[in-house]
């Protein structure tokens, strides 16, 4: 598999990592204390309210969507058995319950509860995930259900519970300052599904297989990547992937952070995605390059950010998701609450401001606001075999976000968080996208089950 991916590296070498980290550093097997001795058993309670008010809708269409649900996630991660080769097990369980979402209210892209058009949403859902793992030195191999976090094949966690993917993942930290990752996955579940699909779907490749009449899906994805930090402040990254018979994708990024004094710092990020059709070209012609630049200046409790992003190609930048509308995530500099501004030939710019209330004597309280404008989106030359619903559209649009979050810093409620997010999206020039205002209210409380047990006994 690695050999098959090596030709991808000829396109470019990695240029950095932004806020999200891909493969994490691996602890050495020499430090293993045992399967149970190094175990962790944690939980998370989550409550999610989502309201979206659609504007300028035809009278035949529902003009709002509303869902409210809560649930608990239990996450057990064993240590590794001692010896040259260590073995372990990871298990997660999710349980959720609908609080408010009746027929006619659910849907609209919200996706907190299982739902089919014209029916009542289910009252709840749940699933159990498991993965076995093996460690040699500073290299870990896993098989089962997991949450890969990299720019090529990631896990969406922007609703009640995250997506999971089934396959193999190898992470190695044998070389100083470098982390290598290789993955091979064959299935991915939807955000509200109790099972995996058996293959991998794509959000914005609405290509239909003429033999089956179904949306194009990949049988598997394989990828390899490296993250390298040669010195403090600089991160370099490269990932290459192949979604079988659909597309090949390459990612490169550079991030440089420069602190000037304890209060003043500057950071900049540049990244690029290169996507080309692969194998049998199930989704037709794909040829897209999307790149972005972002720079931030931090002074004390203030942070100012400017970003520019451009999509070059007659198709939007494709990306995987369990089903259409089931987002994965991409490391695009202008990715926002609703839109990623990666349509065919689209250009976009962002201005953002972050504020930390520490100086007010309220550590843990933060505020963020941003505005992103997209223009020159043009599907007039799009391949008719993919993103068919956008054929011929040329449009502009913009999005505004404002959010505040508070995290309890100490005491028995430490980690409890309250997060309020507001979003507004508007379109121009007969866009296929929808105009709406939305509010998301998210409450989370993490807890350590083993620590609670020790305190009781």
Automatic annotation (TrEMBL):
Keyword Transferase tagged: no
UniProt key word Transmembrane: no
Signal sequence, start to end: 1-25
GO MF terms, alphabetically ordered: porin activity
Keywords, ordered alphabetically: Signal, Transport
An example Gene Ontology CC term for this record: membrane
Domain of life: Bacteria
Pfam families in alphabetical order: OprD
Protein family per UniProt: Belongs to the outer membrane porin (Opr) (TC 1.B.25) family.
PANTHER family cross-referenced by the UniProt entry: CHITOPORIN
Protein name: OprD family outer membrane porin
Species, as recorded: Entomomonas asaccharolytica
Phylogenetic lineage: Bacteria, Pseudomonadati, Pseudomonadota, Gammaproteobacteria, Pseudomonadales
